[in-house]
């Protein structure tokens, strides 16, 4: 029986592109859903995100029972989880975009503005950039070295370096991916990263943390 994958629909994600990319990577049953009951029945959960941290957090938390269902499956049951772009940022403790907004608090740290350390550095960080896995990290097998497509003005300042699975460079180091136990988050967009992104999604679909 094909695994049920819940692609969380809370009005703030690049849903159809992510859905199509998951299908292209081999997923058979992907449900765009905000139904807590469907989330509780999913074998894998994907949380996309486009826009501001504040708006995404508000949208996610405004759906009754959705966060609780996600936490039950991800934190208690240990099903594989993938957060994409702002979906990855939402698992932080807080975001500082348009004021301080509480996140899910699954991985400690906060989402801060990218500092313009050099006038030549453009913000937002947009376009293709290197992804460099951290060899010490147990989840690094999911993240391979290569180039992915980024689009963000804020970055995840992770509190514990052991949660950093990959880095990129944009006028200084920025976290490209986080991972812990059954959780993976990527700052880049796999659905826009062509063969590199498709390969990552294939590994996520096969992941047995």
How would you characterize this protein structure?
By secondary structure, the protein is α/β, with parallel strands linked by helices. It has a single domain, classed as Rossmann fold. It is built from 6 helices and 13 strands. The chain has helices spanning 15-24, 36-40, 53-61, 66-76, 86-89, 194-206, and strands spanning 4-8, 29-33, 44-47, 81-84, 94-95, 101-102, 109-113, 125-133, 146-152, 154-158, 164-169, 173-180, 183-186. The strands form 2 sheets. A 9-stranded mixed sheet has the order 2-1-3-4-13-12-11-8-9, sandwiched between helices. A 4-stranded mixed sheet has the order 6-5-7-10, with helices on one face. The protein is globular. The model has no long low-confidence stretch (mean pLDDT 93).
* DSSP strand content: 25-35%
CATH topology tier name: Rossmann fold
Overall strand count: 13
What is the second-level CATH architecture? 3-Layer(aba) Sandwich
List SSEs in N-to-C order. Answer: EHEHEHHEHEEEEEEEEEH
Side-by-side strand order of the widest sheet? 2-1-3-4-13-12-11-8-9
Mean pLDDT: 93
Range of helix content: 10-25%
In CATH, the homologous superfamily goes by the name Class I glutamine amidotransferase (GATase) domain
- What is the radius of gyration? 16 Å
- Helix-and-strand structural type: alpha/beta
Number of helices: 6
Shape: globular
CATH class: Alpha Beta
Biggest sheet, in brief? 9 strands, mixed
